[in-house]
Design goal:
The structure holds two protein chains of two kinds.
Chain A (H helix, E strand, L loop, with lengths): L4 E3 L2 E4 L5 E6 L6 E8 L3 E9 L2 E4 L8 E7 L2 E6 L8 E8 L8 E2 L3 E5 L1
Parallel strand pairs in A: 2-11
Antiparallel strand pairs in A: 1-3, 3-8, 4-5, 4-9, 5-6, 7-8, 9-10, 9-11
Chain B lengths: L3 E4 L2 E5 L4 E7 L4 E9 L6 E7 L4 E4 L2 E6 L4 E6 L8 E9 L5 E2 L3 E6 L1
Parallel strand pairs in B: 2-11
Antiparallel strand pairs in B: 1-3, 3-8, 4-5, 4-9, 6-7, 7-8, 9-10, 9-11
The chains are: A mainly beta, B mainly beta.
Chain lengths: ~110, ~110
């Protein structure tokens, strides 16, 4: 079975550029989560969706960050404009339900902003 | 909201010894407790989970215990091997809220 698929795996870009990270959740999963992982802050929950609807975006650090889920099989996390402090590994995870079920993680996008 | 504390942050053990990682949670409504293993360059992967109606669960060399009264749960790895070296995360969830993760434990198994 295909797991959560994220693209690209690595992204290097200059500050000020727009960055778009992509995620394909596991088919049949109704909830999708975006995380950011850094050495300093650990694993941070940025935003999550249930049935394609954003439920809580209180973890999004700034207005430069936005996320969409246009359909059940695709989500994007966009940073515009990007800054060096946005450098991190970004993970997408999906789950059958919002709670009380395991989340299944993709292998992440390693983002470097120069 | 839920708060999950995880200890220790780093743990070194000799190959063949046991490793124990402990977590506490704050929300008594939490009833689902998974553990994840994250290897270098990969996303966290579920290794075992436990629900609040069970006190202990075992899967080969891995076991998890839950004490709902004290609001703590632990991961036990026996007969550790070098391939057990990774970062381990505990998490808790209950009601209609998603998983809240601990800050992770970096386990090093020394051959």
């Amino acid at each position: 079975d295909a797991g959560v698929i994220q693209s690209p795996r690595h992204e290097v870009t200059e500050m000020g550029q727009e960055v778009t990270l992509r995620c394909k959740p596991i088919s049949g999963h109704n909830s999708l989560f975006w995380y950011r992982q850094t050495m300093m802050r650990g694993l941070e929950l940025l935003i999550y969706f249930n049935n394609n609807v954003p439920i809580d975006d209180s973890g999004m650090p700034e207005d430069r960050f936005s996320a969409k889920m246009p359909n059940a099989s695709f989500s994007t996390l966009k940073i515009q404009p990007s800054e060096p402090r946005d450098s991190a590994v970004y993970f997408c995870a999906s789950s059958p339900t919002l709670s009380n079920q395991p989340q299944h993680f993709g292998d992440g996008t390693r983002l470097s902003i120069l | 909201g839920e708060n999950v504390e995880q200890h220790p942050s780093t743990l070194s053990v000799q190959e063949g010894d046991s490793a124990v990682i402990k977590c506490t949670y704050s929300d008594s409504a939490s009833n689902y407790f998974p553990w994840y293993k994250q290897e270098l360059g990969k996303g966290p992967q579920l290794i075992i989970d436990i629900r609040s109606n069970v006190g202990e669960k075992k899967d080969q060399r891995i076991a998890v215990t839950l004490n709902k009264t004290a609001k703590h749960f632990s991961l036990h790895i026996t007969e550790t091997q070098p391939e057990d070296s990774a970062v381990y995360f505990c998490a808790a969830s209950g009601g209609n809220t998603p998983l809240v993760f601990g800050k992770g434990t970096r386990l090093s198994v020394i051959a």
